[in-house]
Each structure stands twice: as C-alpha cells, then as structure tokens.
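Something for you to look into today, if you have time. What I am after is a single protein written out in full by you. I want to see for myself how the chain folds. Could you add the entry underneath, on a fresh line?
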Amino acid sequence: MTELICITCPRGCHLTVDEENDYAVTGNACPRGAEYGKNELKNPVRVITSTVKTNRKSEPRCPVKTNGAIPKGKMFEAMALLDDIILEVPIKTGDVVIPNLFDTGIDFVACKSIK
C-alpha cells in the first residue's frame, strides 16, 4: 500500500493505493482522485513550467511551460533542453519553443507575449 496526497484539486485528499489489488484507490472524494492515485504509481507525469532567455534586455526571460504532461522521469532532461534557448522577439503566447518533447506530442510553449 502506498499513501499519497491528491494534487488534482485544492481539497488534497489523502489517498491509499493498493498495488496488489489492481491499484485500488481509497480516500478519494471524486473520480479524479482515483485516476490520479492509479496513474501516479503506474505512470507518473508532470507539466513543467520554467523560463528561457530572450534577446531583449528589458525583458531578459520569457515564461514557458509544457502544453501537456510528460513522463516524470524526463523532467530534468526536459529542463536541460531549455538551457541553450534564446528566443527572438517578437514572441506570442502559445508560440512553440521546443516541439514534440521525447516524441510525446507535447511542446514547450511561450506563456507571455513580448513585442
């Protein structure tokens, strides 16, 4: 049995996941908690937020995030890909910074427009 705190909503349900019983979840107040508990043990994923450099001195960094969740084990590798990126202005919210991370179909995208 594994104990987790659900992070899908502010309620923070205390979950218990029974790996030996087909990942049965208890302690959840909604179906999303059951799904989270099962997925967190079988295939944990995360959305990543960070910043990258720009070529504008007045706004030297631009926030970015993945437009979906990637495997948790790839987080540090994904962050390292951002180290050498320098975005050229203008930048629009939603512009793809790095496409198709690790063949997942998930992109790093800009979260701010800079003119």
User: Anything to note?
Assistant: The first strand starts at residue 2 and ends at 5. Helices lie at 31-42, 75-81.
